[in-house]
TrEMBL record:
Protein name as annotated: Permease
Keywords: Cell membrane, Membrane, Transmembrane, Transmembrane helix, Transport
Compartments (UniProt record): Membrane
Domain of life: Bacteria
Amino acid sequence: MLGVLAGFFVVWCIILVGWFVGRQRILGDNARPVLSGLTFFVASPALLFETLSKARLREVFAEPLLVTAVAAIATATIFFALVRFWLKRALPESLMSAMSASLANSANLGIPIAVYVLGDASYVAPLLIFQLAFFTPMFLMILDSSTSTHRTTVLGFFLMILRNPMIVGSGLGLLVAGTGFQVPALVMEPIHLIGGAAIPAMLIAFGMSLNGTRPLQASAGRRVDTLLASGFKLVIQPALAYVFARFALGMDGHALFAVVVTSALPTAQNVFVAASRYQTGLTVAKDTVLITTVVAVPAMIGVALLLA
């Protein structure tokens, strides 16, 4: 238990450094997008490649992947029905709100949590692969069909998935693990060094993003939607993951703890990117990202205490 709390302490310390750096504008106005770009396109794919190349495929594509899929899809479905038929929101906005309530930040916060709290980045791989290869494209395809401003073909979605650097890094790592190929040490060393930049850069960029945003403004008129989405993301989704993993699959110990913690990750920041693209659900997406991001680490500490 002390090791888990120590892991959260490390994560929060680096986040606070990022918050301070952003508040003092030490790195300038463009630092956060530069750090985010570095982690997304370069460092994270390298880290995922190295981690998954050494992973056991049974552990990546077994129960954790199923738990991730069931909890996310169930959360999105229940919340969509709630927003669509109780709050009477339009179909595109209901879809975006469901996305806000169920799509986790598997990279920017998921990878550091997996490394420092769970002990291995491979614990977040099932969530990352499920979201990037299936869950996010599914949402975007439905949004495309329900709006007239953007249309993307099925081929376009497959190309979008294949061009995602995290999918590429994960796919190559899984290929190496599956074939048993030994990557030469001379090749793996620079990959290891580049991947080492991912976690501190992610957390510093994340801390910088916490400056200057005020959620739940009365003028936006979506307080109920935002609070419900935040509650579903931080409470309902990990609860569903726990019930399914514990009672349907019989998981326990560290494996159970890992799937519940990864399900309690905050809303992914690319939900707001999608909301901006489709011009729907902007307030709920932005505020849910911020609220769940701030509350997520204390919520995951609560999960750790409950499952200890």
